[in-house]
Amino acid sequence: MKVFILLMYFFTHFTMALNAQLKHNSWLETLLKTDATPQLLQVLDNPETFQYQLIYTKIDRDRHNRPIFTNYYLNVDRGRYFYPASMVKLPTALVALEKINSLRDKNIDKYSPMLTDSSFKGQTAVLSDKTAKSGLPSIDHYIKKIFLVSDNDAYNRLYEFCGQQYLNETLWNKGYNELRITRRFVKMNAKENKHTNPIRFLHEGNLQYRQPPAISQARFDFSKKILLGRAHLDSDDKFVNAPYDFTTHNRAPLEDLQLMMQSVLFPQSVDKKKRFHLTDDDYKKLYQYMSEKPSESQYPHYDTTEFFDSYTKFFFFKDGQQKIPDHIRCFNKTGWSHGFLTDVCYIVDFKHQVEFMLSGCIYVNSDGVLNDNKYEYVETGYPFFKEVGTKIYEYELKRKRRRKPDLAAWQLHYD
Question: Which of 62, 225, 275, 394 lies 20 to 30 angstroms, CA to CA, from 167?
Fold first, then answer.
């Protein structure tokens, strides 16, 4: 009997510890389920299948127009792994800006031509960029491509500039302890990802600063196995009847990504330790690139049949036929891969004086096979984001505010 009681005690406390990680507001659940389509209800009623997480951030303003934030959560669990895919480009871009700012005494900045060389197995060099007005790559231009179309090579180059160790330790020192970025978006093993390229910065055509290659000594905790799915295709496209191992992959909890986005958009609202050391011009450019449509960009110039205006906008949009209304801007970053979709955004409606943040992820992989490129993005994922975004937007249009926000600061000039 004593043994049974002891077991029940540990089971109860273990269950409580697990549940303590889950953040869930019944009010938000009720709001989303009211008059929801059967498709949305199917997702919301099956959190284990779709592994969705949502954070709705309500924004109010005081008499000085300072924002006040209230977060509402649905099925948010820091312990539940989701593959962040291109979401890691957000912290990588911010760390790259912070690092280049620390090199001002070298007479270089984010606009300086940055030439990437190679010195280790698997590395490639970049000595020009035809999409840039100058014909040369730079940190600023890479960041633009990251936010406009989620360019993978641009991310790889910023990863190499930062170096794996500097990138992760910078994030950890800011308190983002559960975030890890271990790899580029190109086929490389763990050792190759530890090695990052030599880089040269130019000034008026001459060598100004040389950054040597780096070897990461960062220590990651891979003690907790992360296995998802029932089967997968390996790197040679061979079927393996076993779960896919994400243990050493990139990781970024949704709450951290939401707070990171808030720290960029509203730096004064976030603890100083969690912010990034950015200049006024850094913020200006980030706001432009986060909200700019591909059709508004001259450099790079995009084929808008492929990179349509809502190409990286999941909430409300993600439809090549749908036009984003001129009075709405979406400042965001998205990620999609391995059946996971993620979007962290700030929506502004200048016409109706509405603003809010919305962050979410979902897993759509009904056959349980990873790496086969057979995911229900179009059938389930994008409609989920669109309906959730629309319902929150409609709620925001109706909710009474003590003070209307002054959103003039977000009316930007684009290319």
Answer: 225
Q: What is the CA radius of gyration of the chain?
A: 22
**Domains parsed from the chain with CATH numbers:** 24-409 (3.40.710.10)
Measured distance CA(113)–CA(101) in Å, rounded: 15
* Partners of residue 207 on adjacent β-strands: 202
Is this model's pTM higher than 0.70 or not? yes
Q: Write the single-letter amino acid at 359.
A: S
- SS (HEC) of the chain: CHHHHHHHHHHHHHHHHHHHHEECCHHHHHHHHCCCCHHHHHHHCCHHHHCCEEEEEEEEECCCCCEEEEEEEECEECCCCCCCHHHHHHHHHHHHHHHHHCCHHHCCCCCCCEEECCCCCCCCCECCCCCCCCCCCCHHHHHHHHHHHCCHHHHHHHHHHHCHHHHHHHHHHCCCCCCECCCCCCCCCHHHHHEECCEEEEECCEEEEEECCEECCCCCCCCCCCEECCEEECCCCCEECCCEECCCCCECCHHHHHHHHHHHHCHHHCCHHHCCCCCHHHHHHHHHHHHCCHHHCCCCCCCCCCCCCCCCCCCCCCCCCCCCCCCEEEEEEEEEECCEEEEEEEEEECCCCEEEEEEEEEECCCCCEECCCCCCHHHHHHHHHHHHHHHHHHHHHHCCCCCCCCCHHHCCCCC
Q: Find tokens 């659940």 and name the residue.
A: 29
Determine contact, residues 341/381, Cβ cutoff 8 Å. yes
Taking only the tens place, the pLDDT of each residue in 371-386 is 999 999 999 999 999 9
* Nearest partner of 97 among 112, 117, 87, 84, judged by Cα: 112
Whether the link from the prior residue into 213 is cis, omega within 30° of 0, is no
Cα–Cα nearest to 126, from 152, 95, 92: 152
Angle, helices 152-162 vs 89-101, to 10°: value is 40
For residues 96 and 275, give the distance between their C-alpha atoms in angstroms, rounded to a whole number.
14
Residue with tokens 């284990």: 48
Give the tens place of pLDDT for each residue, 318-372: 988 888 999 999 999 999 999 999 999 999 999 999 999 999 999 999 999 999 9
